[in-house]
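To whoever is on call:

I kicked off a structure prediction for a single chain this morning and the downstream step that reads the tokens threw a length-mismatch warning. I double-checked the sequence; it's 136 residues and nothing unusual in it as far as I can see. Pasting both halves so you can look.
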Amino acid sequence: MDPLIARDFLGTGWSAPLGVDGRGGINLVSGDRAIERSILTILATAKGERRMRPMFGCGIHDLVFAPNDPTTAGLVHSQVLEALGWWEPRIVVRSVDVQSSRDEDGLLLIDVRYTIKATNADRNLVYPFYLIPGEG
């Protein structure tokens, strides 16, 4: 059986950012990539940003002016867990690790480790989140 066909049950959706494929149709993503794009969309969307879904997204954007300290890292951790728990039912979040970048002031690296429920496949994704330094 073709491995792409075997993973059709994970879903297919429009790619983000929206684009056109080589035949003039809408670019689509499916399988593991669709779940990854969904996680990125959830983390990149501030709550209240979408008028028709005001609760959709992640509360980390309320912390953009917070100091780069362990308290902020803990708040980011809990916001990411809450958002993914609400909005991405196809995964089980195994861990969320928030670390300050050594190279760039105000950058938090959010390492999300998760398991895709349907395939029991372990994955991880690192999401960069920028604080505005000196403003907190």
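Update from on-call: the warning came from a stale cache, not from the record. Cleared it. Sanity check on the structure: DSSP finds three helices and five strands in the chain.
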